[in-house]
Design goal:
Layout: E1 3-4, E2 10-12, H1 14-21, H2 25-33, E3 40-43, E4 46-50, H3 51-63
Antiparallel strand pairs: 1-2, 2-4, 3-4
Length: 65
């Protein structure tokens, strides 16, 4: 289930990001810990990442290859 904020922008869970990027949850945790995304939202112990931020990260990675 994808979370939404008031403006309608999508936020993704760690599980959703893992599926989207086709990587493990542990790898997602590493990306979050290393601050590869600036659109991180903490809700208690849960983490959400702003999907447009994630898409920008992917574009940067594709451009650097």
């Amino acid at each position: 289930m994808t979370g939404k904020d008031i403006s309608g922008d999508e936020y993704m869970t760690r599980q959703e990001i893992a599926g989207y990027l086709k990587i493990s949850i542990r790898s997602v945790d590493r990306l979050i810990h290393d601050k590869h995304f600036d659109g991180i939202q903490y809700i208690g112990r849960n983490v959400r990442v702003h999907k447009p931020t994630l898409d920008r990260y992917l574009e940067q990675r594709r451009g650097s290859k």
